[in-house]
């Protein structure tokens, strides 16, 4: 199906032809004596999928927490187009069009519809009293939000689960509810924190398809943190690689997978051939990690 952001509930946030650039400039974050991010810079080009990868502890989640306003950097800045995001509260950043999902599932209560409607909350113009009193304007607005939530459920493969309690969903579906809830904010930039972590091969392939569709249909930019290199190589236009809080490489998926610094960070030795078994690159040789794409039984990338 073809979807466009609706106009009556988010008039101030209709995307222009493309979302604005998300620019991260020289961002440094310290925790006591530890520098978790050390003058990190990268730009998420409008409408692109940009992956942020790196071994465990590289600083990926810290970076997401800066982008979504949970952490304030000691120096550097983040801008969405001309709007500075650094130092703004998370709900302000969300209202500017930057939505995120979390590594671990946070949605456990209510139906899929309930959760998606929570995602629409930030876009509601009718106040609590008008909604509680079911004033006509509030009722119309609620209807529009529900219709949009249904469209997003369809786009994310959850249409047949719309009225189902999330507690009864499969793990993969629950992860996609998180994604759908973030989309309900009508973001211009979507931050996906390990969207396929813990999924089996079929669920990962399905979610990869959904991310692809969402980007194409909604024309938004995606910043993706993911250990699954198959997914990164399949979806990303550009990749930034962090290690110990520093940016060590940047380029297309093909460029970074051959980059000597990247091979050293993941495998401990530069230029060694990467094993092709496990694509979940957590960054330790003991886990047999790799920067290879995973293939299904027919040899197609998943
Ligand atoms: N709140 C915190 N307090 C202190 N240290 C922290 C905090 N959050 C992260 N760190 C440290 O900062 C560094 C970067 O951690 P971060 O979680 O950003 O890495 P990551 O790349 O997301 O790792 P993973 O792939 O394991 O999720 C690590 O050394 C981590 O222990």
Automatic annotation (TrEMBL):
<keyword id="KW-0813">Transport</keyword>
<dbReference type="Pfam" id="PF00005">
    <property type="entry name" value="ABC_tran"/>
</dbReference>
<feature type="domain" description="ABC transporter">
    <location>
        <begin position="22"/>
        <end position="269"/>
    </location>
</feature>
<dbReference type="GO" id="GO:0005524">
    <property type="term" value="F:ATP binding"/>
</dbReference>
<feature type="region of interest" description="Disordered">
    <location>
        <begin position="267"/>
        <end position="302"/>
    </location>
</feature>
<dbReference type="InterPro" id="IPR027417">
    <property type="entry name" value="P-loop_NTPase"/>
</dbReference>
<dbReference type="InterPro" id="IPR051120">
    <property type="entry name" value="ABC_AA/LPS_Transport"/>
</dbReference>
<dbReference type="InterPro" id="IPR003593">
    <property type="entry name" value="AAA+_ATPase"/>
</dbReference>
<keyword id="KW-0547">Nucleotide-binding</keyword>
<protein>
    <submittedName>
        <fullName>Branched-chain amino acid transport system ATP-binding protein</fullName>
    </submittedName>
</protein>
<dbReference type="InterPro" id="IPR003439">
    <property type="entry name" value="ABC_transporter-like_ATP-bd"/>
</dbReference>
<feature type="compositionally biased region" description="Acidic residues">
    <location>
        <begin position="291"/>
        <end position="302"/>
    </location>
</feature>
<dbReference type="InterPro" id="IPR017871">
    <property type="entry name" value="ABC_transporter-like_CS"/>
</dbReference>
<dbReference type="InterPro" id="IPR032823">
    <property type="entry name" value="BCA_ABC_TP_C"/>
</dbReference>
<dbReference type="Pfam" id="PF12399">
    <property type="entry name" value="BCA_ABC_TP_C"/>
</dbReference>
<keyword id="KW-0067">ATP-binding</keyword>
<feature type="compositionally biased region" description="Low complexity">
    <location>
        <begin position="279"/>
        <end position="290"/>
    </location>
</feature>
